[in-house]
């Protein structure tokens, strides 16, 4: 089964380290190859032993918890499946900037470009976005 977060750089790097450990590459060599501290790779090794690559995949990517609850996230996912015109934008294309504007208008919170992309990815709608701001 494909996991939408596998494309996030931090998760892809963590999974690459996990695959190396799984293949028997020594911890210190994984740390050096991946540019990680030994303690980080030890943590990954422990997680790998307990729950495999899924355990590594499920480690959070940092930051504070989202201000949007499950209901708000569901509304947002549904909105992003439609046209931006339905929400007052002058185009049929979603962009990161339009997503952030929609969130601010609807929920009164501001997110960075990076977090907005992460949110769209988590919601399974990042495919709807163009490359512009």
UniProtKB/TrEMBL annotation:
InterPro entries according to UniProt: Homeodomain-like_sf (IPR009057)
One of the Pfam families matching this protein, by short name: HTH_29
Stored SUPFAM superfamilies: Homeodomain-like (SSF46689)
Full protein name: Transposase
Species this chain originates from: Paraburkholderia bryophila
């Amino acid at each position: 089964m494909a996991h939408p977060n596998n494309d996030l750089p931090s998760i892809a790097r963590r999974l690459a380290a996990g695959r190396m450990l799984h293949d028997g590459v020594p911890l210190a060599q994984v740390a050096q190859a991946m540019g990680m501290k030994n303690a980080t790779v030890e943590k990954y090794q422990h997680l790998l032993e307990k729950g495999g690559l899924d355990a590594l995949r499920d480690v959070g990517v940092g930051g504070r918890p989202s201000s949007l609850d499950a209901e708000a996230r569901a509304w947002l996912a549904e909105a992003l499946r439609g046209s931006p015109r339905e929400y007052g934008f002058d185009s049929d294309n979603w962009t990161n900037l339009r997503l952030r504007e929609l969130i601010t208008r609807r929920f009164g919170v501001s997110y960075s470009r990076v977090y907005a992309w992460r949110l769209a990815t988590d919601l399974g709608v990042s495919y709807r976005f163009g490359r512009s701001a």
